[in-house]
Amino acid sequence: MLNPENLAIFSEMECDYNSTLLRKKSSNMMENLDDQHSTAKVTIEVLSAHLAKPDIANYILFNHYQEASRNNVIKLLLRGTLLYNARRDVTKVFKYIIELEHVIQPGGALWRILQDNDTSTLSDQRLHCVTKTIKLLSKVLASVTIF
């Protein structure tokens, strides 16, 4: 669960939407900058808790953006959006790793193919298994490299 304490946080869409409105200097958004500022900080704290050791990074970030100004709230909201993106990327990488572990587990189909001493060509089923594993490895490598 993302927010087990049910704290008031912005969703990813709200981070994008609110930062866009603030950049356009929407009068509605300008009135409640203090609320936006505190909710953006809580959002960052909740998201950071899932990704890394947030104590020092958040301390530095929040000290730098202490004032509830328009620019500071925009930057905090953008940071929230980036953390949502990072969370999505990490989840994708972990799903690939879990799928890869399932495919290459000892005793699995791939292991049996690799241990087979038959030097003839691979059957269609075995070729499919090897091809699937190579594609999955490629996805994992690409995701980890991008991340």
Characterise this structure.
With 147 residues, the chain is an all-alpha fold. It folds into 2 domains: 88 residues; 44 residues. Helix content is 76%, strand content 0%. The protein contains 7 helices and no strands. Helix 1 runs antiparallel to helix 5, helix 3 runs parallel beside helix 5 and helix 5 runs antiparallel to helix 7. The protein is elongated and about 75 Å long. The two termini are 22 Å apart. The relative contact order is 0.11. The model has no long low-confidence stretch (mean pLDDT 80).
Enumerate how many helices there are, as a single number. Answer: 7
In helices, the fraction of residues equals: over 70%
Basic shape: elongated
The computed structural class is mainly alpha
Spans of at least 5 consecutive residues whose pLDDT stays below 50 are none
The radius of gyration over CA amounts to: 23 Å
Largest sheet: none
Encode the helix/strand succession as letters. Answer: HHHHHHH
How many β-strand runs? 0
Total count of domains: 2
Write down the overall mean pLDDT.
Answer: 80
Q: First CA to last CA: what distance?
A: 22 Å
Share of residues in strands: under 5%
